[in-house]
Design a protein that fits this description.
alpha+beta, Heat Shock Protein 90, seven-stranded mixed β-sheet, 7 strands, nucleotide-binding, phosphoprotein, two-component regulatory system
Length: about 220
Amino acid sequence: MEAVSHIAAGVAHELRNPLSVIKGFLQLAQLTNDFQKYYDTILAELNRMNAIIEDFLSVSRRKMDRKLQSPVQIMKSLVEIMKAECLLHDVEFAMNLKETALLINVNESIIKQIMLNLLRNSIEAFGKSNQNRKFKITTAICDNEYFILVKDNGKGMPEEVLKQLGKPFFTTKESGTGIGIPLCKKMIEDHGGTFKIESTFNVGTTVILSLPLITT
């Protein structure tokens, strides 16, 4: 029952992101009296909500439909939505990708959801600061692993908070379940990868993900 409760809490947490996007674009549509302009984005977010539910159901059944995918193409497919999200929050966005023909065996939707979750965590970490906000993704290859480094220059975390981060339901937010990071970590590890967080208070945070490359 504990695992089911964690998954249910995770669904609620992850659905907040697309719901917030949909709410924002509906408000823009009302203000501009131009629903058609935002229709595609709203539909995409609704589809993402459905994918989130399906993915968490897969996790609850200990199954994840995986396919051989290009890590480079997965990252490139996130560029436009990440640019838009950063633009909405006055954040400078950059992505520096290491090209490779090698593939990873992953559930693409889950990997994308993890990346978007990390972006929104970074945006929240900026708080009310409105100067020099930066969010950067860098990828690298080492020892047959595809590394993804997600870096922001937000407020960072003190060491005592960093030690607690990742434990179910621990959160520094006024609202929220704290389930996001534990589930992200679990999903990456279920893919045979690693998930690590480095953070310095008042400097910023870097999340380092790795996924095994298929070499044969």
